[in-house]
Specification:
By secondary structure, this protein is α/β, with parallel strands linked by helices. The protein contains 15 helices and 13 strands. Helix 2 runs parallel beside helix 3 and helix 6 crosses helix 8. Keywords: ATP-binding, Helicase, Hydrolase, Nucleotide-binding.
């Protein structure tokens, strides 16, 4: 559906067209006819689906009809992370360039003065993370009685990050639900999300995509079954063949994330690792370098990646299959944004099979399997003791590696026939005893 058929105001439509948006995405086509009528909505929408435009267009249209506006907060958008709040602010400034509204992003980890100044100047639309918002509310810097529009973005993420009590604190201090319009967006409308938010919404219309639509069509998914010991070797081969411009690589643990990033750097790749333990200043620095293209591969844990929004991510690589199947949807939603194409590659080891089954059950489909050729396995330059590959392109099982005799030692002894016969004591000369 073209945006022009929605009856949008000229300033909003002009902003959309200048940003290059002419037709609705599926979530926009389903949601906007509901929200533009002023109804509450609970929408299942993954990252990159166009959900941000849904609530921004709705807010702009609502506020344009109420001009002139008092210099106060009329729309509150809750986001789980600083990065997401800033991204929403940037999108709002882009799409609303012809609308006379002031936007302010409120988040922790930085000083207060700039944010307080934005509130004092009468920001009409406030995008905030829960912690900093509550802090400002308690000190009387943000009045909530003028708020008539509420957005809860990435609700499932917010709950995963432990913001349940914060969210309830905020919702209890807003005008009653019948005096405002509420819009909730979540990758999954789980019972937990609905249980916590529904008491504060006015009979919301549920808009849930079909299972096969959890992943946008422009994401090409590939699955590689690979032995755990060969994962990194295959990763190097994939990177050589794909030659990706910008990669988000996901691991299940902090230790694995940093280890993979270090090994990639040792192999000549512009890679870095980001985990939840990283200081905020360092995290911001790495993200900026990643956005500028100085870092080509950013390895991350799911916790560290929450709210991470970077345009033009060409590839998402799951070095590990996520244990929570919903994380798979979140991960690969970071590529193929805004209608662009992207690729999601998953490396499935022997320890990942049960997690893979859960992922495919959630998707309602099998992920297409790719069988790598022998030359896809590239030796790790950081490995001081490379393992000889078998003729079928697989490493020998653990404990069956070739043993190199010490200098001057005789060749490996052949197995003797017969049972119970002991090998001569000198038959292992030059070979290190086990456990040494």
């Amino acid at each position: 559906m073209p945006f022009a058929e929605l009856g949008l105001s000229p300033p909003v439509l002009q902003g959309l067209h200048e940003a290059g948006f002419y037709r609705c995405t599926p979530i926009q086509e389903r949601s906007l006819p509901v929200t533009l009528k002023g109804k509450d909505i609970a929408a299942q929408a993954q990252t990159g689906s166009g959900k941000t435009a849904v609530f921004l267009i709705t807010i702009f249209e609502n506020l344009l009809k109420r001009r002139p506006l008092a210099p106060a907060c009329h729309a509150l958008i809750l986001a789980p992370t600083r990065e997401l709040a800033l991204q929403i602010q940037a999108d709002g400034q882009l799409l609303g360039r012809h609308c006379p509204f002031r936007l302010a992003a409120i988040y922790g980890g930085v000083g207060y003065e700039k944010q307080l100044q934005a509130l004092r100047e009468g920001a009409h639309i406030v995008i905030a993370t829960p912690g900093r918002l509550i802090d400002l509310m308690k000190h009387g810097h943000l009045k909530t009685d003028t708020i008539s529009l509420l957005v809860i973005d990435e609700a499932d993420r917010m709950l995963d990050m432990g913001f349940v009590k914060d969210l309830q604190y905020i919702l209890k201090r807003l005008p009653p639900f019948h005096r405002r319009q509420s819009m909730l967006f979540s990758a999954t409308l789980s019972p937990r999300v609905l249980e916590i938010t529904y008491p504060y919404m006015n009979a919301p219309v549920e808009t849930a995509v079909d299972p096969e639509k959890l992943v946008v069509e422009t994401v090409r998914q590939e699955l590689f079954h690979v032995a755990r010991a060969e994962k990194f070797s295959l990763l190097l081969g994939i990177l050589e063949k794909e030659k990706p411009e910008r990669v988000l690589l996901f691991c299940n643990t902090k230790v694995q994330t940093l280890k993979v990033a270090e090994r990639l750097m040792a192999n000549g790749y512009a890679a870095r690792g980001i985990t939840g333990d990283l200081p905020q200043s360092r995290r911001v620095q790495l993200l900026e370098r990643f956005k500028k293209g100085e870092i080509k591969i950013l390895a991350a844990t799911d916790v560290a990646s929450r709210g991470l929004h970077v345009e033009d991510v060409t590839h998402v690589i799951n070095y590990d299959v996520p244990q929570d199947p919903e994380e798979y949807v979140h991960r690969i939603g970071r590529t193929a944004r805004a209608g662009k194409e992207g690729k999601a590659i998953t490396l499935c080891g022997e320890d990942d099979v049960y997690s893979l089954e859960n992922v495919e059950n959630l998707l309602g489909q099998k992920i297409p399997v790719v069988w790598p050729e022998e030359d896809w396995f590239v030796p790790d330059k950081a490995d001081s003791a490379p393992v000889r590959r078998s003729s079928r392109g697989r490493r020998p099982p653990a404990g069956k590696k070739d043993v190199v005799p010490a200098k001057g030692a005789p060749p490996h002894p052949k197995k003797r026939s017969g049972r119970g016969k002991k090998k001569p004591a000198d038959s292992q000369k030059g070979v290190a005893p086990k456990g040494r």
